[in-house]
Design the sequence.
C-alpha cells in the first residue's frame, strides 16, 4: 500500500490495546504519538461564587424541594401526586387520570420537547446548565465532597497522597453520605408510584416488596454512580442532547463566549501593570475558567459540545477581572453575531425574533393551546357500551324485543355519584334494567344494561340509538354514547 506525500503512515501496530500508536509524517521524519483512547482524568471543579452560581443553586433548591416534597403532600385524604400503576390511576392533585387519558401525557411530552427546542435556539443549553437532574445531583454531590474533603487543592492533594487513616476516613465518610443521599433519592422516586407513607412503613418493618426494593436500589445506584463517579462523562458521552444540540444552534443563539479580541494575547502580569504597555490583552492566563468548569474544558478555545452552559467560567473570570481592576465580561453570554458586530444586549435581543424561533414558538403555542383546551373540556365521566354477542335479540313478555349490553362506567372524579341511565332514538324504547347506578369516587364498574322495544314499533334490522348517562347530584356530568338496537326483520317471523 502506498501513501501520498504528506500523508501520515503507521510505523508499527500497537502491541496492546491502549498502547500509543506511532505515526510518521512522510517526508518530515517527525514521529507523533497518538493514543488509541484517552484514559479519563478526574476533574476537580473549583468552588465559584457569583450571580450565576446563585442562580444555579436556586434551581437546585427549587427542583429538589419539589421532588422530595411532593410525595408528602396530602390531597383529599390521599397522596397529592401518585402514579398508582397497580390500580391504573394517576393522581395529580385534584385530577384523576386513567390509561384512557394517555393523550394528555402525549401532549405534555410534545410540549416539553418543543419547549426544549425553543429555549435551545434562543439561549443554548439552559436546561443542561441549571435544571437537568445530572447537573443538579452533580452539584449536590460536589458540595458534599467539598464539605468533607475540602476545596480543589485539598482534594487533589488528598487523592495524590498515600492511603492513610485520615484519607480512608474522609473517603469513607464521603461515600457514606453519597450513598445516603442516593438511597433517599431512590426511595423518593419509588414514593411516586407506591404511597410514600406506606413505603416508609414497609421499609421500617423490613417488609418492602421485591419490586419496590429493586427500584429503590436501582435508582439510588444510578444516582450514586452518575453524580458521584461519572459526572461529566454522562454529559459528554451518554447524553444524546450533547450530540444533536448543534442542529438547533445558529449564529444568534445565546452561548457562553470568550472575547478573543479583548483577551488576546493572554499572559500573566501584576495587578498594577499596564496590559497595553506589555502588549497583552485582558486575559491573565490564570486558568480559573478551566478550574471551575465541571466538564474540564477551556472555553477560550471556542464553543465546544462539552459545554453545558452552566456559566461557572463567567463567575470565575468576573472575579479575576474585578481583582485586576478590569471591566467584567471577558467571558459572557453572547451570540456569534453579537461578538462579530460588537453589539450589546440590544443587538442580541433584536435578533431573538427570527424564523427559527418563530416556528418553534408557533408550534409550542399550538400544542399548549390544544393541551389546555383538552383539559378544560375533559369530562371526568367515561362510558363504554359493549353489546352482548351471545344473543343479538330476544323476545320477552308482552311481545317486547330485548337487546343486552354491558355498560362500562368510569367515575374519574374525587366524589361518589349516582348516575341515571336513559335511552332514546326509537318510539317506546326504554331501559328495562336498573336505571340508576351508584359509583364510588375514582372507580370503574361494569353494569348489565337491558333495553327493550315494543314489537309493534320494530322496523327490523339494526337501528341507531343513543344511551345517555347523567349524574343526578348536580355536577352536570353527562355522556352520550351511540349504540345499535337490533330487531328481527319482518320476513324472518
Sequence:
Amino acid at each position: 500500500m502506498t501513501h501520498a506525500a504528506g500523508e501520515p503512515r503507521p510505523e508499527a501496530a500497537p502491541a496492546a490495546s491502549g498502547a500509543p500508536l506511532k505515526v510518521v509524517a512522510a517526508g518530515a521524519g517527525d514521529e507523533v504519538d497518538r493514543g488509541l483512547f484517552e484514559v479519563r482524568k478526574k476533574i476537580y471543579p473549583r468552588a465559584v461564587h457569583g450571580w450565576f452560581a446563585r442562580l444555579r443553586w436556586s434551581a437546585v433548591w427549587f427542583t429538589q424541594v419539589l421532588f422530595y416534597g411532593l410525595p408528602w403532600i396530602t390531597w383529599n385524604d390521599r397522596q397529592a401526586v401518585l402514579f398508582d400503576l397497580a390500580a391504573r390511576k394517576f393522581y395529580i392533585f385534584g385530577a384523576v387520570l386513567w390509561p384512557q387519558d394517555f393523550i394528555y401525557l402525549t401532549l405534555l411530552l410534545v410540549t416539553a420537547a418543543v419547549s426544549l427546542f425553543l429555549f435551545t435556539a434562543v439561549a443554548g443549553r439552559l436546561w443542561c446548565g441549571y435544571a437537568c437532574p445530572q447537573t443538579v445531583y452533580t452539584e449536590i454531590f460536589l458540595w458534599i465532597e467539598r464539605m468533607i474533603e475540602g476545596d480543589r487543592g485539598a482534594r487533589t492533594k488528598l487523592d495524590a497522597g498515600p492511603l492513610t487513616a485520615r484519607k480512608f476516613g474522609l473517603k469513607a465518610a464521603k461515600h457514606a453520605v453519597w450513598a445516603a443521599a442516593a438511597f433517599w433519592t431512590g426511595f423518593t422516586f419509588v414514593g411516586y408510584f407506591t404511597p410514600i407513607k406506606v413505603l416508609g412503613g414497609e421499609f421500617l418493618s423490613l417488609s418492602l416488596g421485591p419490586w419496590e426494593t429493586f427500584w429503590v436500589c436501582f435508582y439510588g445506584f444510578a444516582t450514586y454512580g452518575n453524580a458521584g463517579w461519572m459526572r461529566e462523562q454522562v454529559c459528554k458521552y451518554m447524553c444524546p442532547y450533547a450530540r444533536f444540540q448543534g442542529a438547533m444552534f445558529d449564529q444568534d443563539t445565546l452561548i457562553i463566549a470568550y472575547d478573543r479580541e479583548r483577551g488576546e494575547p493572554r499572559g500573566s502580569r501584576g495587578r498594577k501593570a499596564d496590559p497595553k504597555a506589555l502588549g497583552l490583552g485582558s486575559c491573565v492566563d490564570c486558568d480559573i475558567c478551566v478550574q471551575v468548569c465541571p466538564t474540564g474544558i477551556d472555553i477560550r478555545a471556542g464553543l465546544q459540545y462539552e459545554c453545558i452552559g452552566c456559566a461557572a467560567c463567567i463567575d470565575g473570570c468576573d472575579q479575576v477581572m474585578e481583582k485586576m481592576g478590569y471591566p467584567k465580561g471577558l467571558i459572557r453570554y453572547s451570540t456569534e453575531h453579537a461578538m462579530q458586530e460588537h453589539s450589546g444586549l440590544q443587538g442580541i435581543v433584536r435578533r431573538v425574533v427570527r424564523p427559527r424561533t418563530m416556528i418553534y414558538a408557533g408550534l409550542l403555542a399550538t400544542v399548549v393551546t390544544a393541551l389546555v383546551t383538552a383539559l378544560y373540556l375533559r369530562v371526568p365521566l367515561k362510558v363504554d357500551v359493549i353489546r352482548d354477542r351471545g344473543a343479538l335479540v330476544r323476545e320477552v313478555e308482552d311481545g317486547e324485543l330485548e337487546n343486552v349490553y354491558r355498560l362500562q362506567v368510569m367515575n374519574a372524579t374525587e366524589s361518589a355519584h349516582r348516575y341515571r341511565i336513559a335511552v332514546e332514538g326509537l318510539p317506546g324504547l326504554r331501559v328495562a334494567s336498573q336505571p340508576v347506578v351508584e359509583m364510588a369516587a375514582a372507580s370503574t364498574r361494569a353494569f348489565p344494561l337491558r333495553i327493550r322495544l315494543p314489537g309493534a314499533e320494530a322496523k327490523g334490522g339494526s337501528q341507531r340509538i343513543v344511551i345517555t348517562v347523567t349524574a343526578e347530584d348536580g355536577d352536570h356530568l353527562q355522556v352520550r354514547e351511540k349504540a345499535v338496537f337490533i330487531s328481527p326483520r319482518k320476513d324472518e317471523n
Notes: Residues 1-34 have pLDDT under 50 and may be disordered. The two ends are 93 Å apart (CA to CA). The chain has three domains: 1-39, 41-378, 381-492.
